[in-house]
Amino acid sequence: MSRHIHLSGICGTAMASLAGLLQLQGHRITGSDKAAYPPMSDLLASLGIPVREPYAEANLEPRPDLVVIGNALSRGNPEVERILDERIPFTSMAALLREEFLTGRESLVVAGTHGKTTTTSMLAWIYQVAAESRPELGPSFLIGGVAENFGSSFQLRPTRTFILEGDEYDTAFFDKGPKFLHYFPDALILTHVEFDHADIYADLEAVKMAFKRLVNLVPRRGRIVAFDGSSNVSECVAKAFCWVERYGFSNEADWQIRSLRFEEGLTRWEIWHQGSLWSLMEMRLAGQHNALNATAAAALAAGQGLEKNAIQKALASFKSVKRRLEVRAEVDGITIIDDFAHHPTAIRETLRALRAVYPRARLWAVLEPRSNTLRRKVLEQDLIESLREADRVLMAGVYQQERIPESERLHPEEVVQALNAAGTPAQLHANVDAIVAAAAHELGRGDVVAILSNGGFDGIYEKLPARLRERR
Length: 472
What we know:
Elements (H helix, E strand, L loop, with lengths): L3 E5 L4 H12 L3 E5 L7 H8 L3 E2 L13 E4 L8 H9 L3 E2 L1 H10 L3 E6 L4 H15 L9 E8 L4 E4 L5 E6 L3 E3 L2 E4 L8 E4 L13 H12 L7 E5 L3 H7 L5 E6 L6 E9 L2 E8 L2 E8 L4 H16 L4 H10 L8 E6 L2 E6 L4 H14 L5 E5 L12 H8 L4 E4 L16 H10 L4 E3 L3 H11 L5 E5 L7 H11 L2
Parallel strand pairs: 1-2, 1-4, 2-3, 4-5, 6-9, 6-12, 7-9, 12-13, 13-14, 14-15, 19-23, 20-21, 20-23, 21-22
Antiparallel strand pairs: 7-8, 10-11, 15-16, 16-17, 18-19
Helix pairs in contact: 1-2, 5-8, 5-9, 6-7, 8-9, 10-11, 11-12, 13-14
């Protein structure tokens, strides 16, 4: 039965993807958000789904049959208040996803502090390629980003497999547990476990407890493919009731990466399975972290019965995910890269990957501390060490710093001071226009600029290329 479903907070990656899935089921979809920006605003526009800005009680006119409340909304939001006052039926993204799409299907979940969006995209593409000869493998999926092979963050097929990114962030203001506890995985990839989401997790132990609860949901007949280079991951899978396989670089890994190299524009490596050479692999994406992501996806797919040739073909033809090492512009020999940086470890791996691709370039890191972890000082030293991978660093102030208590807040001036003291030239600027002006004054042919933010960064992705063109 078709319903009018309104999504409050529709421009979040998972919410926009859910909106598309619900529309495919024949529901009438509307949405609202504080502000919309690419790539999800572009996706929603392409689907013809109207988005109202900003939040307001009037956005719920005409009265919907059901409202999906995003986890960014809390009490005091005008839409939340009207929903509660009038008892309009409401739910969360994760709960509705399970109810509408996961029940009766095989749920393959990719979780972890880092790498889950890319790994989920890789796994979905492996199934898509395998379906060329075995149509029953055509996957449904939901990814927290736009997978370039699909041009979408979601797909719905009348088949058994549903592949989805398992987010450890909380579900809604009325459900503070992580989203992934709604997904009941039949098989699970666990990439990394580190302290993150400092706004909802008190410490690393709280993060590990969330992942332990996820592991505890995998049935005995299921499988877990887990990174072997992390004691935190080892702790989280130690009491699993199902078969666990490890992947990584160590000799003890069930799926071991050997001879990793970047050459001729490709990443190449060997996968050894339980001591024997299993496959030679290659892909376009650079970076050790992406080889790990690809190996995890290959291991899970192989364990689910997919053929090796399909896995090899899929990874060789895999493109990327929007906002993951995405080349946004090339102007007068200057390359501008967009990456969805949210954590010091992700920043480090991004910069190292760019070093491999552009070994002779002067590498710039332009950082907006925007995620709820980067806005806090808890990982300040890790951030400094990560940024030292760059040759030059430009920093913006903390996004919405007034929302972070002074005692918890990251102080970018201290990061810049530490970088300069360590020999990495760094500057702090008041706003994006100042950053663009400083960068445009110094950038030269052959330079590579990594713009690191998990948000819109006040339009810097358009402003910097435009300023560089003006220099001509």
